[in-house]
Design goal:
Two copies of one chain form a homodimer.
Chain A lengths: L3 H11 L2 H10 L7 H8 L3 H13 L3 E6 L2 E6 L2 H14 L11 H7 L1 E3 L2 E3 L1 H12 L3 E4 L2 E4 L3 H7 L4 H6 L6 E5 L4 E5 H13 L3 E3 L6 E3 L1 H10 L4
Antiparallel strand pairs in A: 1-2, 3-4, 5-6, 7-8, 9-10
Helix pairs in contact in A: 2-3, 3-4
The first copy, chain A, binds a DNA duplex (30 and 30 nucleotides) through helix 4.
Chain lengths: 226, 226
Amino acid sequence: MNNPELMASIAAAIGDPARSKILLALMGGRALTPTELSLEAEVAPSTTSAHLAKLHKADLVTVVRQGRHRYVQISNEQVAELVERLGGLSGPVPIKTASGPKDPAMRTARVCYDHLAGELAVRLFESLVRQHWLELKTDGIAITDRGRPILEGFGIDVAALERSRRLTCRQCLDWSERRHHLAGSLGAALLDGILSKRWAERDLVGRTVRFSAKGEKQLKRDFRIP
Amino acid sequence: MNNPELMASIAAAIGDPARSKILLALMGGRALTPTELSLEAEVAPSTTSAHLAKLHKADLVTVVRQGRHRYVQISNEQVAELVERLGGLSGPVPIKTASGPKDPAMRTARVCYDHLAGELAVRLFESLVRQHWLELKTDGIAITDRGRPILEGFGIDVAALERSRRLTCRQCLDWSERRHHLAGSLGAALLDGILSKRWAERDLVGRTVRFSAKGEKQLKRDFRIP
DNA sequence: CTCATACTTCGCTTATTGTCGAAGTATGAA
DNA sequence: TTCATACTTCGACAATAAGCGAAGTATGAG
């Protein structure tokens, strides 16, 4: 059964504005340094250090040292999903950023931990199912025999994904669209492929993924997205 | 986009052992009084009052007055799902209870907010899909034309469920089985039906649902569960 | 080797939180 | 009307937490 003490400690670890900012910043999927996170959280580096210690103790983040740099990441996708759920419950608010209408861009395509989220991601997922390249089952989502060559044609080593212990396919609730997009190792591989083919690029900061006109066209063609 | 302040306040509201115990107690789906919750949380009534005020402020619970009694419930199923997710992340631990092997009973059938969870619930859901009475789609789970008479035969007013604003069908991750069971208004209606037919009964305290031998047989027969 | 950078630890201050018993308020039974 | 019950509010106490600047440690550039 659930352990209220442990549950409370996890929630308490998240339950501070600075730590929430840190977790949300990490939801972009990038490993960030304490200095970067200090800027995101708008607290002093020493305070950030203490916060990271708490997040680490609660197993919400991992830290890897590389020379004098520390790289912080969200521990695993269960944590990512929890943060996303908490985010969804707290509802979307407008982004206060310097340039242009960013929120629409975020709705269209963004990184959710390690996979693509947003309207395009939702439609991609729907198309994969509609084309019977993925099959929805009660115990998960399966890559079909029809879908395998399509995904391999896109450059994904499907066999390797399936050999991995990690879930290949998982639905992730897209808070901006209130439908699902594809998470799991296949979701991550699709994003990697999109980025490596330069159909889209990430913003330098933040989570937005911007498709070029050509890239979006290519995505829609290859995956039969209306 | 996500609001870190609001996200932090929701998580902080959960992030105390006493409040976690309160929320987990409420996950049984029953409205409980502050006195009952005080016993569950193992704190003084005045402390419970303060905790309930915090949970209410964070919109995690609702309180209804009935004479001198207050009845507390979880606000909505998004909150229930969040609590379930947090519970899943913190992992199951053995129940320390007076009588018998409760944990196995909890794995078999229990209440998850307002619907059935556990091994039987998972198999019920799988069967509903396998029999094509429910259909998995990327935008949700639909009751099929084939399934409609089956559910109505069980005593469920399917049209009324579908007219409701609430989601009829939703997958809920069963932490004990690591597969999904059925939540949403259909999930709740199924549980109501099972209880009203006396195929199963709830324990007086806690979340366990106990099927009689006859009731389990009936469930398996009517819903083609192997 | 020296200096700069990244990051943590320490000590301190301030604020917040959780707990309780006692008192108070509202409701219901007798 | 009186007494019991359910629950909240108040005041007090103790513990915890978040914040910072300064100092310390480790790494890397020049």
